[in-house]
From TrEMBL:
It comes from Candidatus Eisenbergiella merdigallinarum. This is 4'-phosphopantetheinyl transferase superfamily protein. InterPro entries: 4-PPantetheinyl_Trfase_dom (IPR008278), 4-PPantetheinyl_Trfase_dom_sf (IPR037143), P-Pant_transferase_sf (IPR050559). GO terms for molecular function: holo-[acyl-carrier-protein] synthase activity; magnesium ion binding. Pfam families: ACPS. Residues 108-185 form the 4'-phosphopantetheinyl transferase domain. The lineage of its organism: Bacteria, Bacillati, Bacillota, Clostridia, Lachnospirales. PANTHER family: L-AMINOADIPATE-SEMIALDEHYDE DEHYDROGENASE-PHOSPHOPANTETHEINYL TRANSFERASE, PHOSPHOPANTETHEINE TRANSFERASE. GO terms for cellular component: cytosol. Belongs to the P-Pant transferase superfamily. Gsp/Sfp/HetI/AcpT family. Coiled coil: none annotated. GO terms for biological process: lysine biosynthetic process via aminoadipic acid. Keywords: Transferase.
Amino acid sequence: MSGDAGRIRLYLADIRPLYDPVLARRVYGRLDDARQRKADLCRKPAARAASMAAGFLARYALEENGYGGYPIRYEAGGRPVAEADGREIFLSLSHSGDYAVCALSGRPVGVDLQKRQPVKAGVLRHFYPPKRAALFLERYETGASGVLEGEALDYFLREWTVKESYMKMTGQGMKLGFSEILADMEKRTASLENGEGRTAVFREYRAPDGYFLSACTEVWN
């Protein structure tokens, strides 16, 4: 991977086969202790299947890229990292609806998957600074019930995946607020609104129907 450290490799899986208890036990047995504990905390079958699928994809991604023998450690913010021969291999996990996804890169990376579902317009005040929220509402109309619909919903969810993937890339996760992040959908970059911190480039990927998928990686000077 030394020649293309910034390249992002994505692995996506349908979680529904893990509703089968026999297969679920097999996959559970291949997870590391930290991921098993995470799965054990999930009360709902769908959440447990998603957690196991994401953990399995992380191990699969490492094996596919020649790092199968290296353990995964979890940083304070929950970001998974594998150390291979003195180098760090960065991973990021996400799941939504019926799918889980893992991103792998030689640079800090974040990935997010979102299922298309209704979003109340009131969320905008937490998602954007006030001026950007006002601009969004000028550009897009909301339904009579105050719910984002059609093009407005699609744009919002696209931007959501970019912002959340940026949060994961930094290793801070939800310690960063959505309104603190600027996603430039034309320039394909993400950064902090205050101009501090690292700038990331992002890419949107083809996802199953009704889903949105983006991944961010750091820009290195």
